[in-house]
Amino acid sequence: MQVTTKLLIDMTCHMRPAYSDAEKDFCKTYLQPVFGEPDRHGNYIKVIGDRPVLAFTAHTDTVHAIDGIQTLSVEDDFLTTMTGSCLGADCTTGLWLMLGMIEAGIEGVYIAHAAEEIGGVGSTALVKDNPVWLDDIAACISFDRYGTESIITHQGGSRTASDEFAASLALALDMPFLKPDTGGTYTDSLEYAHIVPECTNISVGYYSQHSVRESQDLLFAEMLLERLIEADWSLLVYKRDPSVPIGGIDYLTAAYEDDEEEKALTKLDDLIFNYPQRVAQVLLEYGLTAEVLAEEMGVDVNSYKDYYQCS
To answer: What's this model's pTM, rounded to 2 decimal places?
Structure first.
């Protein structure tokens, strides 16, 4: 399988909610020839090198409500869809980047996690299994961030990577426009943060994820893959102490243990009630405007304003 921009476009055609038949078919087509069979949680793992210290991650599911094949469009080097659904570059681009790095023989542990979009199910279970290779990992780098400028240092308000590591990663990639970003919300690398010193998420060039306006900057994706292949990984600096508790992990993962949906909803209700402005900011960063949310909820964008005025 040759990792080209056309391959990224072909992969992104697949709408694949977690545990759907479309996701299974996607994995059989694009991942299994490279990774082999998944683990018992549905995660695909590939180890290159002798005791690598870096883990690279993405996830196999998309946030689509239905599965199937969608029609895409490329204009001015941006990939979009006109089908009324999201694009799914989150996290197809991340998977594509990992396939390119594996093809180039870049040393590391590559993990395509299952069910990130419904609560990090695959990564949570994998970390609990404590695989042998995890003992050697000094940094977990996820490819699951919007835009073109971020190296995440905080997720859910808690530090998961040091500023020194973020600066050294930008240097290793020769991408000085990548800057430390404290505004991360959640991706699979957070589940490693109580074990692995540096856990981050970097921009891969998509925008307005989870919305009908989602797009992928193809030129940025191509450049990032080139820099990942040419990177001097020896420049990375590891400073964060993973033994220092962080506030976000237990809160984010506990709600999803044993598929306790009611507990998850209660926690979300509490979070929205206590931090409405911060929740609104996170939603906006994901491209979920009031109009988009109202459409998803099946309510009139003006009627709920009247409701809040009367309450």
So the answer is: 0.81
